[in-house]
Design goal:
The protein is mostly helical. The model has no long low-confidence stretch (mean pLDDT about 90). The protein has one domain. Helix content is about 75%, strand content about 0%.
């Protein structure tokens, strides 16, 4: 029994991290459950720090999403050797960045108490500085730089987002008038664009269970666009309609989680294709 359990853990949890083979149904469900439970712990922490997860907070956290995506590329490029590189593979990278973020957030709140500087300025700047270091490291070690694919992915993603928002306005669909909701959908559509381009025009592979299943079933990676719309918009609607009576921090963190699982992979994929990694 102990041997079977050990083999199970290695097969579904440890080996995907060591060999970076991606996701399987078992670890996908497990990480999703852990993420959901973690949100409640983060709510308690933010309440203790007297921080509200509002629009300002979410935008201040955004640089750390870029940090996560770019750190994954640092690992993809082989810049960091084992065992440290395991910290840069999902899900360990989420814990790593989370604890660093909390440390910077606590320091920023401490600075706010002894000065007139609002906590979100040093907090956001910490993420921006970290992102710049990651990009510099990648750029100086990259063997190529494809500006065309970079501009193309950003342009197509932005154009599609704009189209969705125009249609939403014409239909008087107020959900996307909220800037956080719009930002979340932007991140998801950018992820769909990067995935579609990478799988269709470049030799990349999908590692997530559901997208991989749908891509194989439909025969095209562009199925990611309707998938993102069909999933993201109803989830945002449910959050706004049915969680609005709950803690505001819980509502904001759910949206931040949705943003992260879309924008972080989008950043990673875009940087990989741009730098030929």
């Amino acid at each position: 029994m102990a041997v079977d359990l050990g083999n199970f853990i290695y097969q579904y949890y440890i080996n995907p991290i060591i060999y970076d083979t991606g996701y399987n149904p078992v670890n996908t469900i497990t990480w999703a459950i852990i993420l959901g439970l973690s949100l409640f712990g983060v709510v308690k922490l933010l309440d203790k720090l007297d921080i509200t997860v509002d629009e300002i907070f979410i935008f201040a956290v955004s640089p750390y999403i870029f940090v996560g995506g770019s750190l994954r590329v640092v690992e993809d490029a082989g810049i960091v050797a084992a065992p440290l590189k395991y910290l840069l593979i999902t899900p360990l990278i989420y814990f790593f960045i989370f604890f660093v973020c909390v440390a910077i957030l606590i320091l920023s709140k401490g600075l706010e108490r002894v000065s007139r500087i609002k906590y979100y300025w040093p907090f956001a700047l910490g993420g921006v500085a970290w992102s710049i270091v990651n990009v510099w490291l990648l750029y100086t070690t990259a063997k190529s730089f494809n500006a065309t694919i970079f501009v193309l992915i950003l342009s197509v993603g932005a154009a599609l987002s704009f189209l969705v928002f125009v249609v939403a306005r014409l239909l008087n669909f107020t959900l996307l008038k909220d800037r956080v909701n719009a930002f979340v959908l932007d991140g998801q559509l950018l992820d769909a664009t990067a995935t579609s381009f990478g799988l269709t025009f470049l030799p990349y592979a999908e590692k997530h269970v559901l997208p991989n299943f749908l891509i194989e079933a439909t025969g095209t990676a562009f199925v990611m666009y309707p998938l993102k719309l069909i999933v993201t918009i109803p989830v945002l609607f449910i959050v706004d309609e049915y969680l609005k009576g709950e803690s505001r921090n819980l509502t904001g963190l759910v949206k931040l989680a949705i943003l992260t699982v879309g924008l972080a992979p989008a950043i990673r994929d875009t940087l990989r294709m741009t730098l030929g990694i």
